[in-house]
Each structure stands twice: as structure tokens, then as C-alpha cells.
Design goal:
It is globular and about 50 Å long. By secondary structure, it is of the alpha/beta class. The protein has a seven-stranded mixed sheet. The longest helix has 17 residues. It has a single domain, classed as 3-Layer(aba) Sandwich (Rossmann fold).
Length: about 230
Amino acid sequence: MRLIAPIRRTIARFMFECRYGLDTSNSVELASLDSAADEHKNYIPSSWGTMRRIAQLRPIGTDDVFVDFGSGKGRMVFLAAQHPFKRVVGVEISRVLHEIAEANVSRNRPRLRCKDIQLVCEDVLRFSVPDDMTFGYFFNPFTGETFKRVVEKIRASWQAHPRQITIVYTNPIMHEHLARQHWLRVLEHDPTCVGIYETVGLQESSVTHPPRRILRGADSPTRELGS
């Protein structure tokens, strides 16, 4: 039975992709494409359950804006656009992956709940963080100085336009950097799975916030995030 369950899940996911005409499953090495860079990571699709978990964090409203940093083939953009976001944005450095994402979204636009979907093919360091972004998603798309500079861009946007921002970070290699940000509090952290963070009030941003709860192991409800 233990062997049958994973096979069934694989078949179900394959059928789901066929139903919607999606191409998001296979991992891709960036070195084989047009965008190899030291701090950028290979494309690995997020779990199908990731967006369902994000939607449990807080209600998603028509004023919310979702940004996927390193959107790859657009799986998370597709999943997010099934929710009532005002806008869903995917940023991807690879032209090859970006064009696959465009095709995936184009085939499904009529059935998606969010109608304002923007796919941007651009180096994330040149990307302007929207001043109304309220959800930021990362599946370990880059590390090092690239990640730090993107986090700083999010902080600057938040400081210029104070609002609640929730950051979901699958495979949180750079968790320690986020945990040191006084403008963020750690909601959850499982080093093998996910980190979840949210902005604090401006007056609280000079105070260090410990994690609210730490979830590890198979009992973690975030185990489904990532691949």
C-alpha cells in the first residue's frame, strides 16, 4: 500500500496537468537554458498543495497581490490565480521558462478567478516590487546577495507603503537572513520544508521577534509545500 499511494498521486497529478493543458512538472537545470547564474537555482515545481496551504494563512481578498519570485513554468501563478487576488505576478529570469509559463496561463485564462495576471521575464534585481504586494512567494530561486537585495527591495516597498506582507519561502536556505530582519516576524520555520514570515507594525520594526511556532517532521502541516 505504501508503494501504491505515491503512484496514485503521480497519476492524479499527471491527469490534472493533462486536463488543464499544463507543462509544469519536470525539473530543469538552468545551466541547460539561457539564464545560468551563480546564485540562481534550478527550476523545481512547487507542490500542488502549496497554494492551498498559503490560503490557510489568512483570508485572500480582492485587494491582495501575489508575487512569485522565480516563477519558472508558472505553476504557482496558475494556482494563485484560482483565488480572488487583485493581481498575480510571476518574475522569471529564463526566457525559455517564461514562455512556457505564458503558454500555461494563456490556455487557462478564461477559467482563472484572477483576471490580472502578469508574467515578467526579467532579472529579479531589476524588477520593481509592487507597492501593493501582500504575498511574496519563493521556492529557493536564488541565494546570497541576490536574495538579500530582493529582501531589501521588499522592505523598502513596505516602508514606503506600510501594509501587511506575508512571505512564504519553501526550502528556506536563507532563513537566518530573514529572521534577522526587525521588520519581519517568523511565523513558522522548518529548515527542511518552509519558512513563513509577516511584516510587523512600523513601530515594532526595531524589535526582534522570536518565531511564533516551529514545526518540524512529518506532523508539520506545511510538509506539502515544495516538491
